[in-house]
Amino acid sequence: MEIKVEKGDLARHPAKAVIVNLFEGVKSPGGGTGAVDKALDGAISQLIAEGEIKGKKSELTLVHTLGKLPTPRVLVVGLGKQADFSLDTVRDVTGTALRRIRNTGATTVATIVHGAGIAGLEPEACAQAIAEGTVMGLYRFDRLKKPDEDQTQIDAVTLVEFDQSKLEALRRGVERGRILGEATSHARDMANEPANQLTPTVMAERAQALAEDAGLECRVLERDELETMGMGALLGVAAGSVQPPKFIVMHYRGGANNTIGLLGKGVTFDSGGISIKPSGGMEEMKGDMSGGAAVISAMWALGKLKAPVNVTAMVPATENMPSGSATKPGDVLRAMNGRTIEVINTDAEGRLILADAICYARQEKLSPIIDVATLTGAMQIALGPAVTGFMATDDALAEALVKAGEECGERMWRFPLVDEYRESLKSNVADIKNTGNRYGGAISAAKFLHFFAEDSAWVHIDMASTDNVSKNKGAWVKGATGIPTRTLVNLLLSLASQGK
Ligand code: BES
Ligand code: MN
Ligand code: ZN
User: Fold this and answer.
1) Of the candidates 131, 161, 191, which is a domain's last residue?
2) ω into residue 245 within 30 of 0, thus cis?
3) Is 351 tagged catalytic?
């Protein structure tokens, strides 16, 4: 699909559908909406006067133009109250409006640049949010099913602006938004893929293909190399599966400073292992590699954006399966740094594979180390589907992460690394055990990782609450969210601009 920027008059645009907008409470529209209203002999202001159009956020009103305009239809989208308006509104109304238009069968769309008018936001940021909303909101995962007979698709979206001086900024914003939107689609694709299709081997192939496309280096470590390196924790998780584990390493070099480590959990299916999960909802565990998918996709975006930063990504990829060769509760594994782990619950596997990744990242002197994982059900309980939780050893980094998330509509909330909870991880037979107290489970999981991160500057993002959404809403489409791909890119760009 194409996203373009054109100078012109929205009311004269020949697209199959035109999107205009309205803030709540506005009685006589101005700007692009005003021009379209005028060309429609006041049809929009009449619908406002009659109370059909109120301008409430995401309210949609389809008006047929019956030959008065070159376009056959105009969609009026509500922006809500001007006081609540933000780039999130821009991104979300774009997704909602375009899905509605896709249902009409219109293949080309021209839109007003939401936010750049009376709301007075930066045109470049608005264009970026529109491009993100377009790619994210129209996302479909339909590779595995026969298309509906009447399924249609939008081929082109054009941002129409009459002010020549804004065009260049709009084009820059569209390009950036398109890359961030597509990165999100790559992450969603991997997470939506069923586990029989996306094995660790296939995930590594995806990483290699994305690396090649964005000009990055990618190397996949095989089981024998992992044995030589001493990654006993990862190998212990992989022991129950017939699928060989893969340790994906990607390098992006665009800066002059230290190399940042981006680590992602790549459990392509989490059955729980011998501590097997209940069958209800187990299918959702095909998405237990969402952290790794976000990391790989963020790397792709950094390459495409030519970001001035150095990053190494590490994604341990494996299945967690029960079998005669699987790790059993009570077994002791030895991580790459030589520390021993008593496995109490084989379903606490994410922290095991990340322990080895963190050891490797420390050995490679990556700093800071940022890991991303669907780690605990406890985080899901704590935050629910609207917020992602994280822990950090560094206040400035934590602050930068919250800001990076806020910028792109991916809310992040910091949890404390409570030292007391380390106690519950004491083992009789090993240096540490892999589960602690049920209460505060997201924090004790983080404390387990903290034991391996030692004194590194480190952030742990537990995205178990936000890896999936249950319905279409704004830029979000039912299924995998692709969170926190855009947050990671924003964070790395902000660290780059601070010279870190
Ligand atoms: N992948 C799960 C966590 C998860 C749960 C992610 C729900 C997304 C949605 C993780 O490997 C796991 O099983 N964690 C256990 C840990 C427990 C055994 C200490 C959990 O949270 O129940
Ligand atoms: Mn598990
Ligand atoms: Zn898991």
Assistant:
1) 161
2) no
3) yes
Catalytic position from the list 73, 206, 351, 486: 351
Counting ligand 1 atoms within 8 A of each CB, the residue from 375, 381, 468, 469 with the most, and so the one to mutate, is 375
Domain that holds residue 88: 2-161
Strand segments (E) across 167-264: 217-221, 246-253, 259-264
pLDDT digits (tens, 9 = 90+) for 389-409: 999 999 999 999 999 999 999
Q: What pLDDT band is residue 500 in, cutting at 50, 70 and 90?
A: low
Does any domain span residue 199? yes
* Digit-coded pLDDT (tens) for 40-71: 999 999 999 999 999 999 999 999 999 999 99
Nearest alpha carbon, ligand 1 atom 8: 464
* Å from CA of 272 to ligand 1 middle: 8
Residue 382 tokens read as 């704590």
Q: For residue range 393-449, what is the model confidence (pLDDT) as tens digits? A: 999 999 999 999 999 999 999 999 999 999 999 999 999 999 998 999 999 999 999
* CA dist., res. 236 & res. 265, Å (int): 15
283: Cβ contacts below 8 Å, ≥ 6 apart = none
Structure tokens at 230: 């001493």
CA 387, CA 448: separation in Å to the nearest integer? 22
